[in-house]
Amino acid sequence: MSDVIHLLPDSIANQIAAGEVIQRPASVVKELVENAVDAGAQQIQVHIKDAGKTLVQVIDNGKGMSETDARMAFERHATSKISTANDLFALQTMGFRGEALASIAAVAHVELRTRQRGSDLGSKIAIAGSEVESSEPDACPEGSIFSVKNLFFNVPARRKFLKSNETEFRNIINEFERIALVNQHISMSLHHNDTEILNLPESGLRQRIVNIYGKALNQKLLTLEAQSSLVTISGFVGRPDSVRKRGALQFFFVNGRFMKHSYFHKAVMQAYDQLIPAGEMPDYFIYFTLDPATIDVNIHPTKTEIKFENEQPVWQILCAAVREAIAKSSSIPTIDFDVDGSIDIPVFNAPSSTFKAPSVQVNSDYNPFKPDTSYQQPSFDWSKLYKGFEEDRAAAFADESIEAIYPENQELSSGLISDPAPDALFPEVSSLCYQYKGRYIITSLKSGLLIIDQHRAHVRVLFDQYLTNIRNQQGVSQQLLFPEIVTFTPAEATLVPSLLEDLRYIGFDLSNLGNNSYAINGLPSGVENLDPVALVKDAVSRAIDTGCQVHEEICDALALSLAKAAAIRPGQSLSSEEMDNLIASLFSSSSSSYTPDGKVILSKLTDDELDKRFK
């Protein structure tokens, strides 16, 4: 039998390896920008076209490469950053594996123009699918210019499964921001389709954060500092009153490298325990500096997973540091009286002989329940106003059908849907409703009791209403007297233009002001008392969470976000008419048993279950 095991060609091996290192255009940006940082660049420019599918170009003014180094850089496991295995435990650079450029060249058309500092002439090399197409001298500026074109041109399956341009570019922005947050001493810029997205001059850390995420974040950050023989922790954490349910800015960096660490995230959340509502998330930008020998970054090719030798002590130091930062802040307001320029009022010390205790004269004959004969109140029989009221109500509910219980054209001040259709699930619903603890509505059935969560029920009703408005393109907008301004992060701003039409169908009226800011000119009817900025930000964040792939999913996310914000709150008292109309509207919805996100709305307690409780 002949031998069947053979070595794969380098080109095929590089394509296979590229699957781990180069997963999407954002991976190319990450690897090339990190190489520019390692090269000592002080200025880095990133140019993107079609979310990186057509072009990813990184220009830096680093130390550049010689002609030989430029050719060797694209060989697999070729690197200048480590020489021995021991160097892995003393890393001072972002890259070290020697796989990135070889993986990129295996799945794209790559052109490198580079010139060393002090050299008169540079080099230009072009590679496509791991094959060198040309190599020649070139008159280029000092540093390096990497141009990656037609990513995954020879791997159509990978290119087919790339996400939409909005999603891919948002991932590029995320990678760019992570590198920018630890290299504030480097001037960096990002352009997409010849439009400048970010321009970050050299600055301090707080200013770099503000330049990326907006000035509004500056007042919400608390300084974090902790130093020990084991680790030095610095950075910023968010104020307890600035938390949010989604879209929180949460970053961990260790020795200048971004990392994901769920265990340390729990330490931060532990420090905020009892200070923020359940489900809310704080912002944080936390930087660890420690001996490279005590961590292992060689876990995964993406290098975002890092193991710590002293994980438990670092956890305790981090938690204590965050608590101290919160305690030192002015999150709890204090009363401080200004005594400058106040008048000095002398104390009056009266002689004891002249002091007389005050006395109160009381009329012992006064009786508040005794009628005052001096004033004759006109007689009026108030009972006449209510005469026949109970009889009319009983007659209205004599028929147990749902049509008699919920008459037509019944409207509520809370904005619940009127004119519902009958529901076949609970045709025997009683007309009598009771509210329990401002949260549940209890009504009787022929076969037992029905308990309804009023908030979830209203979410379902409003969700159907908003979704219908989007599909029918007939949202009702209430114009604001004074427009509000909402500012998005660069990652959020890439998605907003694709959501404007759907937001308009719900009832939002937004106009672009430039610089990632929008004016909120109108809101959906019924939510005028809510925070407009928070509503829009929450809607966009929820749409981002869907992945922005299917239009129907985005519409559902927008409708659900607004429904949750506009629904009646737990604890709100409802009148009998409001409870009746809410139940009727619920039973006319597309699904009366569950909310759009799968939470139970109804719970039925049968007569048999009640009988068992009293046996």
User: How many individual β-strands?
Assistant: 22
Alpha-carbon distance between the two ends: 80 Å
Class inferred from helices and paired strands: alpha+beta
Strand content: 15-25%
Largest sheet, described in full?
Answer: 8 strands, mixed
Outline: elongated
Number of helices: 18
Mean pLDDT over the residues: 79
Give the % helix: 25-40%
InterPro entries: DNA_mismatch_repair_CS (IPR014762), DNA_mismatch_repair_MutL (IPR020667), DNA_mismatch_S5_2-like (IPR013507), HATPase_C_sf (IPR036890), MutL/Mlh/PMS (IPR002099), MutL/Mlh/Pms-like (IPR038973), MutL_C (IPR014790), MutL_C_dimsub (IPR042120)
Domain DNA mismatch repair protein S5: 209-327
Keywords: DNA damage, DNA repair
Organism: Macellibacteroides fermentans
Key structural traits:
eight-stranded mixed sheet, 615 residues, alpha+beta, 18 helices, 31% helix, five-stranded mixed sheet, single chain, 21% strand
Mind sketching the topology for me?
Elements: H1 10-21, H2 25-38, E1 43-49, E2 55-60, H3 67-72, H4 100-106, E3 109-115, E4 122-128, E5 131-138, E6 143-149, H5 156-160, H6 165-180, E7 187-192, E8 195-200, H7 205-213, E9 221-227, E10 232-238, E11 250-254, E12 257-259, H8 262-271, E13 284-289, E14 295-296, E15 307-308, H9 311-328, H10 389-396, H11 402-405, E16 433-436, E17 440-445, E18 448-453, H12 454-472, E19 477-487, H13 490-493, H14 496-506, E20 509-514, E21 517-524, H15 532-545, H16 551-566, H17 576-587, E22 602-606, H18 607-613
Parallel strand pairs: 1-7, 11-13
Antiparallel strand pairs: 1-2, 2-6, 3-4, 3-6, 4-5, 7-8, 9-10, 10-13, 11-12, 14-15, 16-17, 17-18, 18-22, 19-21, 20-21
